[in-house]
Amino acid sequence: MATAESASAIQRNQVDLLDFIDWSGVECLNQSSGHLLANALKQGYREDEGLNLESDADEQLLIYIPFTQVVKLHSIVVKGSEEEGPKTVKLFTNRQHMGFSNVNDFPPSDTVVLSPDNLKGKPVVVKYVKFQNVRSLTIFIEDNQSGSEITKVQKIALYGSTVETTDMKGLKKIEEH
Amino acid sequence: MVLEATMICIDNSEWMRNGDYAPSRFQAQADAVNLICGAKTQSNPENTVGVLTMAGKGVRVLVTPTSDLGKILACMHGLEIGGEMNLAAGIQVAQLALKHRQNKKQQQRIIVFAGSPVMHDKKALEVIGKKLKKNSVALDIVNFGEDDEGKTEKLEALLAAVNNNDTSHIVHVPAGPNALSDVLISTPIFTGDGEGGSGFAASAAAAAAGGVSGFEFGVDPNLDPELALALRVSMEEERARQEAAAKKAAEEASEQDATMTEHASEGPSGADNKKNEIPDDDNTLLQQALAMSVDEPASTQDLQDTEMSDAAAEDPDLALALQLSVQESTKDSSSEADMSKLLADQSFVSSILASLPGVDPNDPSVKEMLASMQNQSESQQKQDEDKAPEKKEEKEEKEEK
């Protein structure tokens, strides 16, 4: 029941937050040079199954996404392959310039363990109270499904709403994959 | 012009006492560090550079990343040599120092001077390298000094682990006549990745290539454009003045006092040689020359005679002016004759030579030289009395002198 409600909530008033991402400040640590974050985030690239974000030196990834305005985050979608897709994902709000060394210094705003369903595109709803006032989001991908050296992410999508105004024109019906 | 924060890791271990790099490994390293700091701060004013030492009692950060070049150079003073280099700890401390840099937008870079043998094994270095790559820190390695078994291999492995898209480099500098800094200037460590410090590097390379650089006047237009422009302008003004002076000397040779033209042509030749004047116009210079000739006729002439002979060899216009002034002025030729007479006076010369330590006037080679000088001065006197402009021969005479 909860999931049905949340699924309809997505359809009702949640927007793809892609438009509110401040692209000049987007950073990703440990990404492999041929497979950048844009492959997973940007419109068009993220729909292409052949274009993935891949990790480089080891299986962890640290993604920093600032927004152009304050947003409320409702849910996220992380798509990847069954073996090399991410498993444990920690979300931090409003922390700048995190590094791999201080990810464990403070508790995450939310921790998500992705199931194979999620990897196919089912959105994961995040803890409501923690994501009411989000200026920036840090996504820490800790490991992947099979424990391989490289983590591959095909798509990352964020759904939520803005705090200042609810733009009626921006409302879109989000299809579930 | 990459915005960068750099940490330089200096090796101040006992191995740095060795003198196979002039004057000592440590000094060569210090010079290279100074050069790098200058290049980094110049390529982008917001760049910061920090320095730490890896040997001694332990890894010690001398200065945290700062853009103040004076502070960086000052901390290089009074460094002591001793202990053993701890490469792993040095790199890790450098990474930590970079992590806490003030401007998070700066790219992180570590430059390591590895002069002594590397104690750690390849695996440990590769782990360190991977950690650097994961945190997007670039690493430049300067491999110099000791070359024991495996050191090069280990450093290459470290570089391979760190390298991400060719942002990291390694340079092997063998001992030899070239200074460490000179070798480094042409490497990507200085030139950045493509552009960046290339302006500074080019000028530094020119200066290092030995005194007189490829640039006119030995001053780089990049380093000091105003000075280079001023020098060029004054050079052209002098050329114009010399031509005017030569014409004047030809016209007014019989009328004016020849010493005046000599001084007038001396003025430009003096400026030509020294390149430190920007004279206003012909008149003021001539006035000055007149005043000079009135005040100190004798002494200045002697000085300027020798200068004249040097200048004459270089500039044909000036030589012409000098020829004419020499012909017209009896005073002039007499003073020259005086000098050559003095030189011809063998007793005078031998007394001078006797006073010089280590010269025996009775030595046959010295006598030979005296004889040749005497012949030369005699032939010169003959030419003076001829009063026929024999430009080439006299030029050769003066050049021989």
Radius of gyration of CA atoms of chain B, rounded to a whole number: 31 Å
Encode the helix/strand succession of chain B as letters: EHEEHHEHEHEHHHHHHHHHHHH
Q: Per DSSP, what share of the residues of chain A sits in E-state strands of 2 or more residues?
A: 25-35%
Q: In DSSP terms, counting alpha (H) and pi (I) runs of 4 or more, how many helices of chain A?
A: 3
| Number of E-type strands of chain A | 10
CATH topology of the domain at 15-111 and 127-144 in chain A: Jelly Rolls
The CATH homologous superfamily of the domain at 15-111 and 127-144 in chain A is named: PITH domain
End-to-end span of chain B in angstroms? 53 Å
Main beta sheet of chain A: 8 strands, antiparallel
CATH classification, class level of the domain at 15-111 and 127-144 in chain A: Mainly Beta
Strands in their spatial order, largest beta sheet of chain B:
3-2-1-4-5-6
CATH architecture of the domain at 15-111 and 127-144 in chain A, please?
Sandwich
Shape of chain B: elongated
Protein name (chain A): PITH domain-containing protein
Domain PITH (chain A): 6-177
Pfam families (chain A): PITH
Organism (chain A): Hibiscus syriacus (Rose of Sharon)
Protein architecture, described:
The complex is a heterodimer of chains A (177) and B (401). Chain A has 177 residues and is mainly beta. Chain A has helices at 2-13, 38-41, 116-120, and strands spanning 15-16, 27-29, 53-54, 61-79, 88-93, 110-113, 124-125, 134-141, 152-153, 155-162. Chain A has a domain at 15-111 and 127-144: PITH domain (Jelly Rolls, Sandwich). In chain A, strands 1, 2, 4, 5, 6, 7, 8 and 10 form an eight-stranded antiparallel beta sheet that branches. Chain A has a two-stranded antiparallel sheet with strand order 3-9. The longest helix of chain A is centred in the first third of the chain and has 12 residues, at 2-13. Chain B is an alpha/beta fold. Helix content of chain B is 58%, strand content 10%. Chain B has helices at residues 25-43, 69-75, 87-99, 122-134, 151-162, 180-185, 188-191, 198-208, 225-251, 258-274, 282-295, 297-314, 316-328, 330-344, 346-355, 364-386, 391-400, and strands spanning 4-10, 48-53, 60-66, 107-114, 137-143, 169-172. In chain B, strands 3-2-1-4-5-6 form a six-stranded mixed beta sheet, with helices on both faces. Chain B is elongated and about 90 Å long. The A-B interface holds A 29-30, 33, 56-58, 60, 96-97, 99-101 and B 99, 104, 130-131, 133-136, 164-165.
